[in-house]
Each structure stands twice: as structure tokens, then as C-alpha cells.
Amino acid sequence: MWRGLWFCHTILNMKEIFPHQHIIRTIVTVAVFAAVFILSACEKKYAEEERKIVINEIMPVNTTTATDQDGEYDDWIELCNISSERQDISGWLLSDSKSEPAKYRFPPKTIINGNGFLIIWADADTMQNGLHAGFKLSAEGEKVILSYPDGDKVDLVEYPPSSLELSYSRNPDGRGSFRWQLPTFSGSNNTDSR
Q1: In degrees to the nearest 10, what's the CA dihedral of 26, 31, 37, 40?
Q2: Considering the entire predicted model, what is its pTM?
């Protein structure tokens, strides 16, 4: 039966080295359970927030549907607040690249009203007033990623290629699956007639 280990030709008894093994074992066990609890609480918090703000509609080809404040037909992304309360997304991130999640950071006081929508122009023209992301959308298909200020993902949508002037939309809003349909710029996607 193993009772210790050799060190400099002397057998060391583990009970002599760690006379209070049971206390150490208890402390380690408590620390592990505490870490798991804290991590699961953080995941729950993020999961609850994910259900409040989602990517709802993506328009990678826009030549006649809607213009920005300068009269330009730019690509756009719509976020939806599926809760009934106002949500502040100041500092959140939007990107078309997992490796560069901070291509666009929402400015201070960016609020989405309860059950409301928010349009972000994806025109790579950050010098314009309003919400203009530093990237464009590709008609060849790509990803759109919404993240928390620390870079943790809130929502990710990957849309397929399309040369038509349709939007890639959740139907119903916020919770449904995505499909190509006529755009509903800053309005509800909930319809079966499209």
C-alpha cells in the first residue's frame, strides 16, 4: 500500500506534509462550487438580456426601399427589443466579423423602446450623423454580430446570398426563424402574406 513518496532517499508521509487534507479538500470543493455558481449566474444574466435585444432584419441590397437622413439608399440592419421595457444598448458592438467585433460601437444614450425597433445604416460612413456602422453588408451573404461592450456575443445571424431587394427577416419579430421577404423598415415583420 502506498504511504508516501521518496525524496532525497527519505520516504515522506503525505499525512505529515498535509496533516489537514480533509480541510484542504473541503476548501477546494467549496471554491469550485462557488466558481460554477458565479459563472452560471453570469450566463443566466446574459441569456436574459439576449432575449430582450435581437437582430431582427437585414437589408443587404437597398436601392429603392428606404433612405438615410441624407437621402442615400444604404444597407441597413434592424434590431428589435422584444421586451416591454426600454433598453439601453450604449457601448454595445455591431460587426460583420467575428475577429473584429468592435467595427461599430453604439454611442451613449442609444435606447430602444419597449417592443420597438432600431435601424443602423451599414454604409461604412461613420462621419454621417445618426447610427452609421463602419462596414457594409455583402449581397454575397455574410454574418452580422451583435455583442456586449466586453465583446461577448448577444446575437449572430448569418444570411445567404441574394441579389434581390428583399430583407432577411425574423418572422414573427424577435423569436421567429429567418426568411427572405419584403422589407418592413423599422416595422413589424409579423405577416404571412409576404
Answers
A1: -130
A2: 0.73
Q: Which helix (H) or strand (E) holds 48?
A: helix 21-50
C-alpha cell at position 174: 424577435
On average, the pLDDT of the chain sits at 84
At residue 190, the pLDDT reads 80
Number of domains forming the structure of the chain: 2
CB atoms under 10 Å from CB of 51, counted, come to 13
The reported pLDDT for the residue numbered 33 is 59
pLDDT at 186: 86
**Per the omega criterion (within 30 degrees of 0), is the bond before 172 cis?**
yes
Q: What does DSSP assign to residue 67?
A: -
What is the residue type of 72? E
Domain range for 87: 54-181
Residue recorded with cell 434590431: 79
- Which residues of the chain, if any, have pLDDT below 70? 1-24, 26, 28-51, 192-194
Residues in the chain: 194
Residues 63 and 146 in one domain: yes
Distances (CA, A) of 58 to 62, 63, 80, 159, 182: 10, 14, 12, 8, 11
